[in-house]
Design goal:
Elements: E1 2-5, H1 11-27, H2 38-41, E2 46-53, E3 56-65, E4 70-78, H3 87-101, E5 106-112, H4 118-126, E6 130-131, E7 144-150
Parallel strand pairs: 4-5
Antiparallel strand pairs: 1-2, 2-3, 3-4, 5-7, 6-7
Length: about 150
């Protein structure tokens, strides 16, 4: 598996992200959905990585710069056929390293509060993320959980 900065121009990543947004819409009420679509991920403050095996996209993740020291983890996803295979851990390790290299000292995230998101919350806890109050433009939401960690 290789993890690369992705310019989001290929059809495989477009399809992978469309499935992600569709899945999030099926799990979360519209007012609580925070998954970014392709246009949202193409903003200049976003760095996006895809995990690939050959030409296949098997995972992805991104960070959005909130300010000079604080970034938000976004769009973490593993291909449904590859869950629990270590892809998310490798991606998260890579993104944590890159966030530090880019000069960030804090990384925060929003994820769902439903049982579906429990494996993600466990992964983030394993990597040192602690629960926190809403950050940036987020507001308290019973469908959201907020986590952060110092880098």
């Amino acid at each position: 598996m290789r993890i690369v900065v992705d310019d989001l121009s290929g059809p495989q990543i477009a399809h992978f992200l469309a499935e992600h947004v569709q899945q999030m819409r099926s799990l979360t009420p519209p007012e609580s959905k925070h998954a970014l679509d392709l246009d949202g991920l193409r903003r200049p403050e976003v760095t996006f990585w895809s995990a690939r095996e050959g030409d296949a996209v098997v995972g992805c993740g991104a960070i959005t710069r909130l300010d000079a020291r604080h970034a938000e983890l976004k769009s973490m996803r593993t291909a449904p056929t590859r869950t629990r295979s270590g892809i998310a851990s490798r991606l998260l390790e890579h993104i944590l390293t890159e966030a530090q290299r880019l000069g960030f000292t804090r990384l925060s995230l929003e994820t769902g509060s439903a049982d579906f998101f429990l494996p993600a919350r466990r992964l983030y806890s394993k990597y040192g993320f602690d629960y926190c109050e809403p950050f940036a433009d987020y507001r308290p939401d019973p469908n959201s959980v907020f986590m952060t960690r110092v880098l």
